[in-house]
Specification:
The complex is a heterodimer of chains A (about 290) and B (about 425). With about 290 residues, chain A is mostly helical. Chain A has nine helices and one strand; from the N terminus they run βααααααααα. In chain A, helix 2 packs antiparallel against helix 3, helix 5 runs antiparallel to helix 6 and helix 8 packs antiparallel against helix 9. Chain B folds into two domains: about 160 residues, Chloramphenicol acetyltransferase-like domain (Chloramphenicol Acetyltransferase, 2-Layer Sandwich), CATH 3.30.559.10; about 230 residues, 2-Layer Sandwich (Chloramphenicol Acetyltransferase). Classes of the chains: A mainly alpha (about 290), B alpha+beta (about 425). At the A-B interface, strand 1 of A face strand 8, helix 13 and strand 15 of B.
Chain lengths: ~290, ~425
């Protein structure tokens, strides 16, 4: 029987590593001894079991999907030849292949949200580009591609990066929203108008307001009610800002129009939250509470 | 729920006791709410004979031969007519017992190895004392079937003896006195971080310590062994927090929940749950506590809490909470998340770990000679990632740390190496797969 030189504990017979600090036992074999009865028996399930790469059910689904895709593609090609120039089979073929890929991705790709979502985003963009290339030039695929990319940047990227870098992921997502607004405006043709004069300033106000919530979460101890009310308050400021910046764009003499009532609600909420925080701090101070 | 049953079914229905209602709704992947108690024997265990002994003894404990059902308002037990089974032991203790498929509908699982008999109980069924009585009775019956004479022991119930109805009662209801129900509000305690990842296979560090050594050091400090161990664990947790949390302003109190068997205090004979929890701790936000200061705190807090009046407050809280009309008539679907919130707020959230000490178990003649060692394990939870359970027998105390932390053993190391530093030899074993540093 050996002892751990770091922890000083006696190790059971046959132990070569301390279970507490993982220090290797430096002692002759006679002292370590032969391994005795383990604390618990070996779990037979723990030993590596060779799993077939594809089980019967998955194999069946793959065969079915591939067969369906092949038959449809062949039918479309034959139809294309039969009808001549009046029918182009390429777009339906791409739709069928990419549609089948959605199912196959779910079977083949590592079953994690980020992987599957990224593959789906990729296939969707490929589909939209194909539609744009093979049909008459239309603008809507670009709007759709921008939206799908924005989804990936907001809802997938922050979870893709390592946990310690997640705040950067959220930063990129916040920036992506601003870029998306500019892209939408640019796709509309002419110069950038509403994005620079209304959307981005409004977005800035909302971000600024949300940043306060993050600061409170980081340095204070807000309650759930505080957080919910703060989010409602941010939404109110966003609505008010939207109205305000629109009026500035059209050079209206009025400060606010339809959002005046929202402004009053926002103001009331702001006062309520400020009073709530202040009174709580005062109460805690006089109660000598540490937290 | 009850109203929808036939009158005959209603007679068979057994409500969960007052402290058990919290367990079924809060079972989760990392929180199986099971505990395990086992005896290592010097004789071999024959599974067929063990099964026969279990069937005999279960007739004496009909309140354990039940299955769990989910009703419209509450969970409830119904008699289980399925055949009993015994299972070979697996590599980690305190696994979740599925109410239907886990153990043929039973809420406990009898496990065996070549020389060990173990029972894992879902906590809704009973507490450590009830489980110990069941295990002692089972092993005694097994040894009797093996041709041994077993002496008398109040905790060994004979298979053919008559059941006392008081053994099956919900003692919380009996000892409830309507008075103001007090819900103490405690701030949240420090919890071990999940660094290194979690595992749903419970990891064990088992420490074996001579009771004589522990007695010597605890009597030197004029405290009991439990008080001494609680103080050691608090000190270890304090050191872990100081090492992990760099900013002292972010320190949180360190507290330990100590389950107390209240049968003696209230004079109950129940073999179902009748345990309450006393939470003792130190507020490290006020500064570092020396070991002697911790001992003093533990001694005062534990001794002032273990009396009928203070514990009666918790009994009132449990029973009054369950009897409240809003609670009583709320459908189970709403109760479940509420129970989870209550469990986190008034339970797991306010303490850092648990130490359950069954005490020194005495064994009757005939059994004493063949029982080599006793073990007791508590399942950890998502918040309290490491739990401790202790039991003493044959001059040794076994202190088992169960954890869902896949790699980290800082807390166990701090606690056990502190004992070694104070001159108490500790022997450790584990079921962890250890990679050399």
């Amino acid at each position: 029987m050996a002892y751990c030189v770091r922890c000083g504990v006696k190790l059971v017979q046959g132990s070569t590593v301390c279970p507490l600090c993982k220090t290797e036992v430096q002692a002759p074999k006679e002292i370590i001894g032969e391994p005795g009865v383990p604390l618990f028996p070996e779990d037979p399930l723990q030993s590596p079991i060779a799993h077939p790469l594809l089980d019967k059910n998955r194999k069946g689904i793959i065969e079915l999907v591939v067969a369906f895709m092949v038959i449809t593609v062949i039918s479309l090609i034959i139809t294309g030849f039969a009808l001549g120039n009046s029918f182009s089979p390429w777009l339906p073929i791409i739709c069928v292949v990419l549609g089948g890929s959605y199912i196959l991705v779910a079977i083949f790709v590592k079953p994690s949200y980020t992987y599957i979502a990224s593959w789906y985003v990729g296939i969707t963009i490929a589909l939209l580009l194909s539609i744009d290339l093979l049909s008459n030039v239309m603008l809507w695929p670009y709007y759709a591609i921008a939206s799908v990319t924005l989804y990936w940047l907001i809802a997938v990227l922050p979870w893709w990066v390592p946990k310690r870098k997640r705040k950067w992921g959220f930063g990129v997502a916040a920036l992506a929203i601003a870029v998306f607004l500019i892209v939408l405006d640019a796709l509309g043709g002419n110069d950038l108008t509403w994005s620079l004069l209304i959307a981005l300033p409004t977005y800035g106000v909302v971000l600024f307001s949300l940043a306060f919530i993050l600061l409170r979460m980081r340095f204070g101890k807000p309650t759930i009610t505080d957080l919910v009310l703060s989010v409602i308050l941010s939404a109110c400021w966003g609505v008010v800002a939207g109205d305000f910046f629109y009026l500035r764009m059209v050079a209206s003499p009025r400060l606010l129009t339809w959002s005046s009532s929202v402004f009053i609600v926002g103001l009331a909420l702001f006062l309520f939250l400020t009073l709530n925080v202040t009174l709580r701090r005062v109460r805690n101070y006089f109660n000598n509470r540490l937290v | 729920m009850e109203g929808m049953k036939t009158p005959q079914a209603n007679e068979e229905l057994l409500p969960l006791d007052n402290s058990a209602v919290i367990y079924p709704p809060t079972v989760a992947r990392y929180n199986s709410h099971t505990f395990r108690i086992s005896m290592d024997l010097t004789v071999s265990v024959i599974p067929t004979r063990l099964l026969t002994a279990a069937e005999h003894i279960l007739e004496r404990f009909p309140f354990f031969a039940v299955t769990l059902h989910q009703g419209f308002y509450w969970y409830y037990f119904m008699p289980n007519k399925n055949p009993l089974e015994v299972y070979p032991e697996i590599s980690s203790p305190c696994a979740y017992i599925h109410p239907k498929k886990g153990a043929n509908g039973y809420l406990f699982k009898i496990l065996y190895t070549e020389q060990r008999i173990a029972i894992e109980f879902f906590h809704a069924l009973t507490d450590g004392t009830g489980a110990l009585v069941f295990l002692k009775s089972l092993v005694a019956e097994y040894l009797r079937l093996s041709g041994r004479e077993i002496g008398e022991d109040p905790q060994v119930l004979l298979a053919n003896s008559k059941m006392d109805p008081l053994e099956a009662e919900d003692s919380f209801e009996r000892y409830y006195t309507p008075r103001k129900s007090v819900f103490g509000s405690e701030s949240s305690a420090y919890h071990l971080p999940s660094s290194g990842g979690l595992t749903d296979k419970v990891q064990v560090i088992s420490a074996r310590i001579k009771i004589e050594d522990l007695k010597k050091i605890s009597s030197f400090h004029q405290v009991t062994i439990t008080e001494y161990l609680v103080a050691e664990l608090l000190d270890a947790m304090q050191r872990v927090q100081e090492a992990k949390v760099k900013n002292p302003k972010k320190f949180k109190p360190v507290r330990i929940s100590v389950p107390v068997n209240i049968r003696k205090i209230f004079g109950s004979k129940s073999l179902r749950n009748f345990t309450l929890f006393v939470v003792v701790g130190i507020d490290v936000r006020l500064g570092h506590y020396e070991f002697e200061e911790i001992l003093e705190q533990v001694m005062h807090q534990l001794r002032s809490s273990i009396n009928a009046k203070t514990l009666g407050r918790q009994v009132t809280r449990n029973v009054a909470g369950r009897r409240h009309p809003l609670m009583r008539y709320a459908p189970n679907v709403f109760k479940r998340p509420l129970m989870k919130l209550l469990s986190d707020t008034y339970g797991d959230g306010i303490y850092s770990t648990t130490l359950s000490n069954i005490g020194n178990v005495t064994l009757p003649s005939g059994m004493h000679e063949v029982v080599d060692r006793l073990d007791f394990f508590l399942s950890p939870s998502k918040k309290n990632k490491t739990s401790c359970a202790a039991v003493g027998a044959n001059g040794y105390l076994t202190l088992n740390f169960t954890s869902i932390l896949a790699e980290r053993t800082d807390f166990e190391r701090e606690a056990l190496s502190a004992l070694v530093t104070k001159g108490i030899p500790v022997e450790v074993a584990t079921n962890r797969t250890i990679q050399k540093d």
